[in-house]
Amino acid sequence: xxxxxxxxxxxxxxxxxxxxxxxxxxxxxxxxxxxxxxxxxxxxxxxxxxxxxxxxxxxxxxxxxxxxxxxxxxxxxxxxxxxxxxxxxxxxxxxxxxxxxxxxxxxxxxxxxxxxxxxxxxxxxxxxxxxxxxxxxxxxxxxxxxxxxxxxxxxxxxxxxxxxxxxxxxxxxxxxxxxxxxxxxxxxxxxxxxxxxxxxxxxxxxxxxxxxxxxxxxxxxxxxxxxxxxxxxxxxxxxxxxxxxxxxxxxxxxxxxxxxxxxxxxxxxxxxxxxxxxxxxxxxxxxxxxxxxxxxxxxxxxxxxxxxxxxxxxxxxxxxxxxxxxxxxxxxxxxxxxxxxxxxxxxxxxxx
Length: 352
Fold this sequence. Notes:
Blueprint: H1 7-14, H2 18-25, H3 32-44, H4 51-57, E1 64-68, H5 74-89, E2 94-98, H6 103-115, E3 120-123, H7 129-137, E4 141-145, H8 154-168, E5 184-187, H9 189-202, E6 208-212, H10 217-227, E7 236-238, H11 243-256, E8 262-265, H12 268-280, E9 290-294, E10 308-311, H13 314-327, E11 336-338, E12 341-343
Parallel strand pairs: 1-2, 1-3, 3-4, 4-5, 5-11, 6-7, 6-8, 8-9, 9-10
Antiparallel strand pairs: 10-12
C-alpha cells in the first residue's frame, strides 16, 4: 500500500517548516507566494490532515453524542436515524447512549462524554436542570430533542408543558421560565393533543382518558387544557416507562373506570399497552373504547382495527437537532417546533 503523505512531507517538498504548513492549512497568516506553494504541494501529494490529530490538539474527539431513553423504542429509532443521516453527511461520528429513562444513568453518560472530550450532544433528556448544568458549565453544546428537562418542583412540573411550548412559540407565559437556556427541537404537542381531543369530542365522547409516561408533561398539560376544567384526574394516569408498567396503568385504568369511552395514549409504548389491555379485558375497539396514540409507528397500521395516531416527524426531528448542534458557534441556534398530524384510521368510532 502506498504510504499516506504527512505534514512533514508537505513541509519538506514546499521548503518551509511544519508550523508554516499547519498555519496555511488552518487559514492562518502567510505570504501569498508561500500560501500558493504550500497548497500546490499539498494537492500534489494528496495530503489530508488527520482529523484525529487535529481534534486531539483541540482537546475534542470530533463527532457528537446522542442520548435517548430507549434504543428499542420505534420513535427513538426514527429520531436516531435522523441524527445519523445528518452526521453522516457532515462526516461526523456519533456516540450513542441509552439512558433507560434514568436521570442517574443519564448523568453518568454525560460524565463519560465529557471525559472523552465530546463537546456536542443531542439528548432526549430524562433528568432535570441539575443533571445538565455541569455539561453546560463545561462548555458542552447541547440540543434537546422531543422534550425538555424535567422541572425540580411539583408546581414547575405541573405547569412546564404549556409554558415551555408557549416559550418556544415566542409567547409570554405566567409559569416560571425554562431554567436552561438550551435550544430544542420538539413536536407541537399542544396542537396535536388538542386536535385529537376535538376529534373525539366530535364523535360524542365525553369521558376521555389520558395514558402518560415520563417526560410527557407538555402532552398531559395539553390534554388538561383541551378537555377543559374541571378535569377528572382519575382519567389521567401514568406508567413509569417500562412496558410492564404501561400495561399495568392501562389495565388499571380500564378496570377502575368502565365508564370511560376513549383513551389518548401519550406514546407508542403506551398505545401498545392500551391495545393489549383492551384485548385482555375483552373491550372491543372502537365499539367499547376508542383509542388515539401519539406516534405513528409501522405496527399501528397493522392493528385490527388500525390505530388513529398523532404523527410526529421523528426522523426530521433528529435531523434538525443534528443540524442545530453542528451549526452552534458564536451565534446561538433558535429552538424549532415541528408540526404534528392527526391520521384517522379505524380505532375511533362514535359514542354509542
